[in-house]
Amino acid sequence: MNVVLLAVAVVAVAAVLIHLLRTAGVALWRSRGERVINCPETQESAAVHLDAKHAAAAALRGKQELQLSDCTRWPQRAGCGQECLAQIEDAPDGCLVTRILAAWYEGKACALCGREFGRVDWSTNKPAILDAERRTWEWRELPAVEIPEILRTHQPVCWDCHIIESLIRKHPDRVTDRT
């Protein structure tokens, strides 16, 4: 009889732990990533990160609380009221940098080779951009806060063309143009 009670207790504790881990894990996952918002105070773009640990701890208490862990307006405006969190609450994934960029590439073609972009896979060959001087850039080389302006002024470039253009720029003596 004691063994049965012990087994039931172990299963109950395991179920509670699994539920807590899942709850915290979901909150951590949803809080990940850099986001671009419109700062309510300055009416300019800002790049922010959510405090994922705080979100997970709040989820364990049964609450949904968001707070920033970083903002491009800090430290100058570190004492702000974080009113921008309302934008994230309204569209949690809509202001994620990867989602903004994926939506921008959708339906577009590479400015250099003309190949159409399909669904962007950010874990492999990431697309790049082409500036007015015909230089290609990877997104990780650019500040997220500038994304809204970059999307207005630059053109999309596929990974293959970006790599070729980078090689030509970095090693012009090793490239032969046969066109």
Give a brief rundown of this model:
With about 180 residues, this protein is an alpha+beta fold. The chain is about 40% helix and about 15% strand.
Question: What does it look like?
Answer:
With 179 residues, this protein is an alpha+beta fold. The protein has 2 domains: 1-92, no CATH class; 96-179, no CATH class. The chain has 6 helices and 6 strands. The strands form 2 sheets. A 3-stranded antiparallel beta sheet has the order 1-2-3. A 3-stranded antiparallel beta sheet has the order 5-4-6. A hairpin with a 5-residue loop joins strand 4 (128-130) and strand 5 (136-137). Helix 1 (2-30) runs antiparallel to helix 2 (52-60). The longest helix is centred in the first third of the chain and has 29 residues, at 2-30. It is extended and about 85 Å long. The N and C termini lie far apart (84 Å). The model has no long low-confidence stretch (mean pLDDT 86).
